[in-house]
């Protein structure tokens, strides 16, 4: 038996009708007949189930699962699909079943409106998005599914702003490199102020310490546009430092070292913001920039911070301590080589976090 949650276009964005249909369209008749969630935090979903007829008996009323429970069959009709490789009596039945799930933030899709567009570099645009759903939150380092009404393909972009900016101003930021991928191409060629999109947060790559957690130091290693989630984490760390004096019971943040490698200085995103954080928190936030294909003279202002060549083993080894967490984001070969290097240094695998991008 196989079952899957319907995703994407079927979400209703208005909270009173939070149902998903596998056909991706409002179903007035079925919605009126559906039972309502009984417990706080639940959300109704329609689930498409493919099963042989005898297997449907396992989907009885109130069949519980750690994450959801099936409550009732929603349609009176089923689709039978006969299989040529089996006897005529064998068929696969497709039904749609209502289940209730506890609403995780990863399933919240929120409308958003573009309220700012800047050129972060010659190839990267920085978007500021006003999020209208007050229940939409994210953790530093996570990404969003990016839904564009006129583009069938869903984009996926890491958030480059801090959770604090969303809490205070109701906005978040993305930095998107120009590629032929339809969502990225739309951002660079058609997106404008007041363009309407939708967002859904996701990802297990994040830094989200709680007040009672022990202090840790961070080493952030970024390659190219892999800086995006790490810049979000860096901004989140800065917020912790700002709040430490006013919040006596808040999380006590350790130090952060950022290693950031790009082809050349023009592709080093957010460098002015990073310089500002280094000046605001000397000794607590430090950064080492690396360029691997610099063809022009490095300007005098940047020279003290720039190293030509890749991040060296010697540099990384001096940060190997038991209270250090490592976050890596960049091209897969870079992540694989650095992860292996850290393991050879004796860094526990549960202290190494990475997210690959392609």
From TrEMBL:
It comes from Gopherus evgoodei. Pfam families: NAD_binding_1. It comes from the Eukaryota. GO terms for molecular function: oxidoreductase activity. Keywords: NAD, Oxidoreductase. The keyword Acetylation does not apply. This is Oxidoreductase NAD-binding domain-containing protein 1. GO terms for cellular component: mitochondrion. Residues 107-210 form the FAD-binding FR-type domain.
């Amino acid at each position: 038996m196989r079952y899957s949650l319907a995703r994407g276009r079927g979400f209703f964005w208005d909270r009173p009708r939070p149902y998903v249909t596998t056909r991706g369209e409002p179903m007035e008749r079925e919605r009126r007949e559906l039972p309502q969630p009984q417990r706080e935090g639940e959300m109704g979903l329609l689930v498409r189930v493919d099963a042989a007829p005898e297997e449907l008996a396992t989907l009885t009323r109130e069949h519980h699962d750690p994450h959801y429970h099936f409550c009732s069959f929603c349609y009176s009709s089923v689709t039978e699909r006969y299989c040529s490789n089996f006897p005529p009596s064998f068929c696969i039945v497709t039904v749609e079943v209502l289940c209730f799930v506890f609403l995780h933030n990863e399933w919240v899709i929120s409308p958003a409106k573009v309220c700012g567009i800047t050129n972060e570099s010659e190839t990267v645009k920085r978007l500021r998005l006003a999020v209208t759903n007050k229940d939409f939150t994210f953790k530093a380092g996570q990404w969003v599914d990016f839904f564009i009404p006129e583009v069938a393909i869903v984009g996926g972009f890491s958030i480059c702003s801090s959770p604090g900016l969303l809490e205070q101003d109701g906005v978040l930021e993305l930095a998107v490199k120009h590629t032929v991928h339809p969502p990225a191409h739309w951002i660079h060629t058609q997106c404008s102020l007041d363009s309407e999109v939708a967002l859904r947060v996701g990802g297990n790559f994040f830094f989200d310490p709680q007040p009672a957690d022990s202090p840790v130091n961070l080493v952030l290693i970024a390659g190219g546009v892999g800086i995006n989630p790490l810049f979000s984490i860096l901004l989140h760390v800065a917020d912790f430092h700002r709040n430490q004096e006013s919040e006596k019971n808040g999380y006590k943040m350790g130090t952060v070292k950022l290693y950031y490698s790009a082809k050349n200085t023009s592709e080093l995103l957010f460098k002015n913001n990073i310089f500002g954080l280094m000046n605001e928190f000397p000794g607590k936030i430090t950064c080492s920039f690396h360029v691997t294909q610099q063809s022009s003279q490095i300007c005098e202002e940047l020279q003290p911070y720039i190293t030509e060549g890749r991040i060296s083993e010697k540099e990384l080894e001096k940060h190997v301590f038991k209270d250090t967490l490592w976050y890596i984001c960049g091209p897969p070969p870079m992540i694989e080589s650095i992860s292996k290097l850290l393991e050879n240094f004796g860094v526990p695998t549960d202290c190494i976090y990475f997210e690959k991008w392609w």
